[in-house]
Amino acid sequence: MNIKYFDLNRFNLNYLELFQNSLTEFVSKDYMVLGEPMTSFERKYSIFNDVDYCSGVSNGLTALILCLKSLDIGPGDEVIVSSNTYIATWLSITHVGAKIIPVEPFEDSLNLNFELIENHISKKTKAVMVVNLYGQSAELDKISEICLKNDLFLIGDNAQSQGASCAGKKTGSWGIINATSFYPGKNIGALGEAGAITTNDIDLDIRVKRLRNYGLSEKYVNDEIGFNYRMDNIQAKFLELKINNYQTIVNRKREIAKIYKNNLTGISFQRLPDNCTSVYHIFPILTSQRNELQKHLYNFGIETMIHYPIPPHKQKAYASLCFQKDSFPIANHIADSELSLPIDPFMTNEEVYYIIEKINKFYYGL
To answer: Given 99, 105, 202, 267, which is the most exposed site by the fewest CB atoms within 10 A?
Structure first.
């Protein structure tokens, strides 16, 4: 049996007929950019997140940058962020000229440790940027309380957790503003690059829409120095179709995650806090025998992934920050022991149990 980590072809073929119908409609219309498909998508994605406003943008990184720019965060400001995350989160802070203040995650939930945040707040701190890693909500209720107490902006990096929730509230609606990515492998994935920003603040929404479009308030009237960070209408069209099928995808992923958890023993899973949910964009396990297990599974035709083997503070790109390699031991431990199991929503139960069988064989010879 051969099992890909994620079979994008199998995933997208389920939408082929809908895609083809949408494409036929698309090419028959006089669409340029920021047209009716974008407006329709933004309306649907804002409803999906239980917020008032949404702006479609070019990708997840530009979404994060625009969140920071819209709040006037820049040189001289500090932003608290998790020490373990995909580097895009850190890059967005660097691109606006602010200072990165890394804070370690909980060792079991793998998300930002809210108990450590206040130890890192200074007079220069303007925001906490929270990553809902692997598709699981961080404890946003507690982080929100800390931000309110200390007059800080709460910014969400919601790139992996579209539709997850904390305390009954969608991750895309916590805080003052949230960014997401629609990279093709996401639960709601584009056919290429795309991202979005959600908020309940009308002034922020107006500014984000202006900044993404050259700083224009109207045609040929540039109120500020902006960017070309617009989402393509064709991506908006396809993404709207995928939102319609979102719950089916996530329900299946949750079924697979439950099967894994009920049948794998001696494995460290990501702890899910009682008031949080996960949409299982990724299904991570932690093991001291990560490389050996990955090779073992590969020999049985099972493809796995590692997210993320080099934490941001060890990247050459951030050598100038002069972090020591052992500065963030929990982030290092996660990077050295994380292995992502296949959780493709179109996997069969036979494939899932085959993976379980081979993992148990590795640990127990069963």
So the answer is: 202
Q: Tell me the three state secondary structure of residue 77.
A: coil
8-244: which CATH topology? Aspartate Aminotransferase; domain 2 (3.40.640)
Give the pLDDT band (50/70/90) at residue 54: very high
CA–CA separation, 19 and 23 (whole Å): 6
Q: How far is the C-alpha of 356 from the C-alpha of 290, rounded, in Å?
A: 15
Indicate if the pLDDT at residue 323 is higher than 90.
yes
Q: Which among 112, 108, 81, 166 has a CA at the least distance from the CA of 284?
A: 108
CA–CA distance, 202 with 60 (Å, rounded to integer) = 21
Query: What are the residue ranges of CATH 3.90.1150.10 in the chain?
Result: 246-364
Output the six-digit token pair for 256. Answer: 């697979």
Is 315 in a helix, a strand, or coil?
A: coil
Dihedral angle of Cα 47, 51, 52, 55, to the nearest 10 degrees: -80
- In this structure, how many other beta carbons lie within 10 angstroms of the beta carbon of residue 183? 17
- Would the pLDDT of 109 be above 90? yes
Task: Please list the residue range(s) of the chain that carry CATH number 3.40.640.10.
Answer: 8-244
Class of domain 246-364: alpha beta
3-state secondary structure 207-253: HHHHHCECCEEECCEECCCCCECECCHHHHHHHHHHHHCHHHHHHHH
